[in-house]
Amino acid sequence: MSLSDLNPQPLWRFFQLLCDTPRPSKQEQLLKSRIREALAEYELEIIEDQVGNLIIRKPATPGYEDAPGVVMQSHLDMVPQKNEGSTHDFSKDPIQPYIDGDWVRARGTTLGADNGIGVAAILSVLTSKDMIHGPLEGLLTVDEEAGMTGAKGLQGGVLQGSLLLNLDTEEENELYIGCAGGVDIGGRFTYQAEPRDDRRQYWRIALKGLRGGHSGLDIHSGRGNALKLVNRALDQLRKQFPALRVASLTGGTLRNAIPREAFAVVAAPAEQGEAIARRISELQQLFMQELKSVEPHLHLTISETEAADLLPEDMVDRLQRVIFACHHGVFRMSADFPGVTETSNNLARVVMDNGHIEVHCLARSLVDSLRDDAAQSLASVFELAGAETSVGNSYPGWAPDKNSRLLDNLTRLHEEVVGVVPKIQVIHAGLECGILGANYPHWDMISFGPTIRGAHSPDEAVHAPSVANFWKFLEAALAHLAKPA
Hints:
By secondary structure, the protein is of the alpha+beta class. Helices cover 30% and strands 26% of the residues. The protein has helices at residues 9-20, 29-39, 113-127, 149-153, 226-240, 273-291, 313-325, 368-384, 405-418, 433-439, 464-482; strands at 45-48, 54-58, 70-75, 97-100, 103-106, 136-141, 163-166, 174-179, 181-190, 201-208, 245-251, 262-268, 299-304, 329-333, 341-353, 356-365, 388-395, 423-427, 444-447, 452-453, 461-463. Strands 1-2-6-3-7-19 form a six-stranded mixed β-sheet. A five-stranded antiparallel β-sheet has the order 14-15-16-9-17.
């Protein structure tokens, strides 16, 4: 059974096109070309704006020209994450989706259902010949996952609609009316490496097997942070074996993904090797005891490796203290939306290159002032450690409007069409609605989507029956919004 056998077939055919086309953030050009080719036979106006967003216009169904214009919005890019050992090259290799019962997954990589299902739904609407709708615009943005460049660069006055349907949330039977804003915080250390010591044995410590996940949707779940765990292991080794030296400490891949893997290279007298290995085994058992219910595949290992230049001891001290002091996880839960994270931070990456160590974080909050407060707290940690500190690339949250007329209409419609009263939610992830609404303040906005699990990790999967319900509701919503009030 292939994706094209699933319902609705047009949506899944377009999703297969997205899987066949490499589309990590900032590399969406090939996909845009293929979308143009796929839409060439249809009477659609296609515009590419100055930052690379695609805007696609479709006239209203005859007789519905006076209906309010609807903008359907999703982002083209996907998060590139893969399992260790995978040779997948996201810049050129297609995603390999497969059907697993009611779920669609990918072989060893992220699937890209975030936000490929939304894009596929928009393309299906734009190419449908029998749907009822008013004037439509599809807004397909670029670089959402890496910096929201497309949303930030969209100019006011370009889009003509007054209603926005964002198709980028990940739980069916829920309508979203708000989201978190975010900001990047970074610390950069400069150091002078010390020459490798060939009299010592070198070992590589690896922490793998964590679940990782979306730093907005999964930050409250108590999942392990690989950087935090490897840092703890190093701290224990340095205390027990004073002669041990550190050559590197790195981990994490993306600012918006919880780190799944981290690594350190250490050097010590060869005769200490067995004792160091025993301590690593003990720490493996300790970490499993702490996290066994959420991280059953956690694996801490040590193996011999090649000699490398060493970090100065004071640099290791500063880096370790920063990782210990840098908050990871929830700062505060929302008092207004039970069960929803209000403010959080993801300790996302540590990278080393040519005498520099960089630590990257992404803080989020439903309240912009608390987002900025969290950023200041984290920046202060870096500053106290003597790092060159940066705070930037901020984007606003989307403030909920419980009096939204669009919300009222679609809440009642959802119950009629799907048979379920939808939950009204805000999301701790960063949707583009807050940014887009700044240039289009007259828009009435709402967000919904099918059920997706494990976004931003190789465990990502989309629930196929929920996609069918999502499509059914989208089709009904467009028809409903086209008719006179």
